[in-house]
Amino acid sequence: MFFKRERKDKLKVVEAATPPSAPPPAPQERSEQRSQIASVHRLPAIRPATASAADLRRTTNPQTLGFKTTTELEPPVGLLGQDQALQAIAIGASIKTRGHNIVVTGAESLADVAAIRAQIQTIAAKRPPPSDWVYVANFADGQAPTALQLPAGLGSVLATSVNDAMSEMGSAILSALRGDSYQARWRAIDAEFQARHQAGLEALARTADSHSIALLRTPMGYAVAPAHDGSVVLQETFSNMPPTMQADVRAHITALEADLAELLEKAPQIDRQRRARLTKLNREVIASIVRAALSEPRELFAEHPEVLEFFSGVEADVVANANHFLPTIDLTDILDADLSNSIDEARLDRYRVNVFVSWASDANAAPVVQEPAPNATSLFGSEIASGTLAPHMLLVPGALHYANGGFLLLDARALTASGQAWPGLLAALQAGAVCSALAGDGSSSSTLAPAIPLDVKVVLLSDAEHLAQILSVDPRFAELFNVRVAFADVVERTPETERAMARTIAGLIGREAVEPLEPGAVAELIELSSRNARDAGLLSLCVRDFASILHHANARRAAASRKLISRDDIVEARAAQGSSSGSARKTASFPEPAAIGSVVGLKSDGAGPRLQRVSARVLPAFARADTLDVKVLTGVSGTREAGKVIAYLASEFGHRHRIALSALIDGESASCEEESCAELVAVLAAIGEWTLSSSIAIAGTFDPSGHVRPTGDVSTAIEEFFDVCRAAGFNSDAGVVIPKANLSGLMLRKDIVDAVEAGTFAVWPAATVTECVATITGLSAGYRETDGGFAEGDAYRHIDDQLQQLNQRTKSQFAVPPVETEPRP
Would you give the distance in Å from CA 284 to the centre of its chain? Predict the structure, then answer.
């Protein structure tokens, strides 16, 4: 029989292991029983009342959900449980100071991302549309385009105006070439220079004729020869002439040849002068044409000096390259050419406008851009591979350019995995300017596009683990993304949130295109949500894992030719997936066999196995006779002080005498920051020389005053221990001791609840360490008497006695032996 001593030395029966009619044993019998137990170091399994099955799993009544099938439910508005997170996003999005970019963790589903985007769009709707950006040619440096900023909608207007002006200019040039005025002026200039050249030849011919010499024009060029009466003298005739005459003719021929050579040498110079005059004519004609073509665009953009400067550059460049717009400079060739195709369109591309980013003229909100696959090209743009387009026409914008003046949503893991995109983004945000990828990604392009001022709010979607990684890698990230929002993963479980969860499930059903659910099936999913939250008072907000269950359940429904998915369909679908409720669960190995000073501990948090054998060894103090030293093994050879264990032992057993011992704990807290209840019980068992049952495990931590503190995911630890006990064949005496504060949050599997109802498994909620000891030993720990000791037969009385013995052993160990002296003679 289990007794618990109350104040004033009264005994209270908590629960009897024998029939109620059996009288309690007398104190003397109890003392003898305790002595007998101590002799074999094993205690009887006498257990107090356990938690009821109703305490272990909170169910949902389908009738309270308020529908017959999920088709009756309206789609959810917003996100369940994320009001605070969405409000924080809205506040962060409203901050215009640089550096207040946003990191959101925990937004994993498409619905989460859609809600974030909707919240951002609400803020964006209150902001004006950003400027248009266009690239135009830089006539001073063709490889460095000029970026122009214009009000929203004017970028496209500028491009259209310039295109129309270029088309008008081309048509006007063709018309001018066909016009009588241009041709008459061209012929006059040509005739002037032709006359100058002809006059020189005629003067030379007259001089030659006066000396009986002929000036001849042959296919090979000009030549001079002796002549008589207008005819060339044959060589035979010239040879028969007197020598003096021959010498005189040769002298004149030599002089004429020199004059002819001088005249011919001046011909290219005269032609250059002719072409210069014709070029000037062409420039005058084209200047008037381009000036007329740009007159209307100039009026349209009269209030934009940078555009007017561009127009002036276009006019000057067209005039400077006037001859490039003509098929040839010779009029005869011009008149013979097909003038309908004589204007080179590729030359006109130099003057066209690359509308880099433009918005509709009636746009009334800032942009919200989501880039699903961020990389250097998708963020910073690229360059078209073309050998004919002008350099500024090759530039293609990226997501940063489209989002400039608004918001950009990016996935953090995809971003950091894409090489240069991540450092490039941080550099752009830090500089407040964005280059095209041509200037920023280390490519071999020769185009040097100027940076555009960057005013964008980046919303980075991450998870907690990845956020910690990127925070540790680049210090710029913490400075640039200092608005951090964590999506809640759970919400309090109330009738209202259960109905809201039902609507969320209905929305998932619609997206997954499965048949409707009956209320019982929804109730099962709600209970599963609580199990996923590991707390009966909470609901997990991660419902995306339900999609696979729904499809499996829908297949079962179809096989049974039913219209609605039932609760059994959901249960069987979970079992078929090998979930935690099915037989495919992986069972952990059972801890090592029981030994003196050891107990099974349940870890509720952290990595590693949740079930561990916790053992303790106790010896007399090593250093001094008044030393209380308890260490915990933390590795192969490392230890740390078990401060709370020391404080508890001193507080509970140090009233009548000093405690002197050395203890070493080997168990679950090697990687934890505080000692567990299992470690304290192991130390107490080592002091009392008890061998405790392996079928009972202990969870939780404690404070120095002896109160058991709540722990984390105790449900998972209980389930793992239950599976271990079943595998080990413990079918009637297994159970766990948990912190009493964790009882209300339990959401155990149904098979465990059934085992508790059948009495084959137990869950004991303990509020104090003494209750843990009483539960696992089957004896009352006891209360301290007025003299500081404990009552005979209590567990703590035995421990107190053992401590006194250890104290005596320690004193004898450090006692100074008497000095033997020889008697005086």
Answer: 61
